[in-house]
Amino acid sequence: MNSRLPHTRFGTRRARLLTVLTVFAVALVGTAGLAGLQSGTTVPDSTIAASKGTAVGAASKPMVGIRTFARPAGLTVTTDVVYTTQADGTPLALDVCSPAGSTPGTAAGSTPGTAAASALPAVVSIHGGSWTRGDKANDDWRDVCEWLASEGFVAYSVDYRLAPASVFPGAIDDLATAVEWIRRPENVARFGIDPARIGAFGGSAGANLALLLGTRGTGSLTEGSRVAAVAELSGPTDLTGQALATDGASERLQDLVLRYLGCTSLADCPQAVAASPTRRLDRTDPPVFIGQSDHEFIPLAQATRFATNLDRLGIKHELVTVPGAVHSIGILDVEMRARVAAFLHATLGH
Fold first, then answer.
1. Taking the domains of the chain in order of start, what are their residue ranges?
2. Phi and psi of 197, rounded to 5°?
3. Which of 133, 209, 316, 348 could be disulfide-bonded to 287 (CB atoms 3.0-4.6 Å)?
4. What is the pLDDT along the chain (350 residues), one digit of tens a residue?
């Protein structure tokens, strides 16, 4: 069955979106340093609220997209939990945002590996940054993590290896490892999740990676590194040279794709097929939410063609476009958040 919504226009005016595009895009790719990775420190939401905005003054941050999210009381964030260690000894970590009333660090059920009646659905949050930069603790992506927690999901904001130091498939391998880590019985118990209800959310490069998680493997969506739903904003879905040229991708986008894939020419880059979610689809893949602006950095044809391919395979999906050029979580305003949350609740439960 196919569940596709008509394209939706939101109330934000095109002129306002275009005005803030440049400033917002710069903010989205900003990074924050990671220091002193530990086994995980739980921080009350009031501490995080006091520390946010110190790197960039609030006056310089346009209040659009995810920045319109107001954090409710009671959320907790467990920071810098190491989920794997690379061959050279470098750790990779994630942050866990838990809903109000949940108790990170305590068992969810009487027996590890069994979901308690109160077990919560989980969402893996994947930051953007052109595959070359970004951080789980970036202010905007921390807001994403906390927003997901406010909707009743246990959200895992994950760091992964970046290009060009680590080219494809390094990042997606890391994220698959993170999902497997989340499903370990001791981690299921620690954060009180249902391992059969794990979804993924990403924006921009993170959207591409979220879709790759969704199209990775075949069969059951409740085991291994598979996820049961994917919501993405502004995701590149076909990285082949032919598709990028046909879609009118900018030279900048094509250059970023080359760096991500470790190629020197899109005409001779076989890994582009493996890195293109639209070319990896099969009928066992999960439902997908697609959100995008109609005149932004990622050509709209990348979204519409992907939706057509989902439709052809009978995979449930929603495609929502908004007017303007704002990219990724810049379009994650109150209306888009409601759309995404409704999709995730419909596919993962409450």
1. 14-348
2. -130, 70
3. 316
4. 334 333 333 333 333 333 333 333 333 333 332 222 233 444 443 333 333 433 333 445 677 999 999 999 999 999 999 999 999 999 999 999 999 988 776 544 434 445 567 899 999 999 999 999 999 999 999 999 999 999 999 999 999 999 999 999 999 999 999 999 999 999 999 999 999 999 999 999 999 999 999 999 999 999 999 999 999 999 999 999 999 999 999 999 999 999 999 999 999 999 999 999 999 999 999 999 999 999 999 999 999 999 999 999 999 999 999 999 999 999 999 999 999 999 999 999 98
Amino acid at 51: S
Q: How many angstroms separate the CA atoms of 336 and 342, rounded?
A: 10
pTM, rounded to two decimals = 0.83
Cα angle value 42/199/96 (rounded, 5°):
5
| Long-range CB contacts (within 8 A, 24+) of 86-92 | 86/161, 91/37, 92/158, 92/159, 92/160, 92/161, 92/174, 92/178
Arch. (CATH architecture) of 14-348: 3-Layer(aba) Sandwich (3.40)
